Amino acid sequence: MITAKKYTKLLLILLLGFISLDAVAQHSEVIARDTLTRAQKISQRGVTNTSHTFIKKGTWITGANISYSYHNNDNFNFAIVEDIASEGYNFRVSPMVAYAFRNNMALGLRGTYSRSNLTVDKAALSFGDEETGTDISVDNYKVVKHSYKVAAIWRQYIPLGQSKRFALFNEISLGAGGTQSIFAANQPVQGTYEDGYSISVGISPGLMAFASNDVAIEVNVGVIGIDFTNVKQVHNQVATGNRRSSNMNYKVNLLSIGVGVSFYL
Description:
Order of helices and strands: HHEEEEEEEEEE
Number of domains: 2
Largest sheet: 8 strands, antiparallel, barrel
Strand content: over 45%
Number of helices: 2
Strand order of the largest sheet: 1-2-3-4-5-6-7-10
Number of strands: 10
Shape: elongated
Mean pLDDT: 78
Structural class: mainly beta
Radius of gyration: 30 Å
């Protein structure tokens, strides 16, 4: 006959046994984790997990981002700028082609061309009051600028769960290009011509969604960018100058948001 004392002792022994087994299992898990290679530890994070294929190896990817904006001001006032009469536009197109050399990973090329045109018939800056203030006016001012760039890109796709339609992607680019600008003002016309080149590295995360089996809509934004620019300047075909600049950007640039269409073939 099992007494209450023996029953309690038996439960205590079983409980200690379970605790010992759990401690041994946890100790074994720690040892196993410590013996993993760095690549195995990284794969356990799941970020580069390719067990769920979103973009299959061997897929060709092509597409483009296009943006266009236009403005026209007629005696418009903005902050300290008064009587603005101006007209201008901004146009940008960025075609891309890539090849998926692994599941969810692709290498390719991206080209970018942008052009902007601004004509200011008149505008005035007003500081202070009417008696002691300072006024600066601009008349007959025109700027035409266009730039071009070619970049090598690497893309990684991260499916949202087991979804076959939605995914995040990250695009890393290394590119180089050129820029040309013309500035003209006053009567008679005085002009400045600029010609330069730039080298840049950028990271652009984004979100994509398949609208059909082959067509996807993509939205991406530039977050991190490093670029170096060198510009030579000639004023009135007489005076010359040079400008070198470098920029490191670690913030979301709302002006760099791009919306495009891609085809997966």
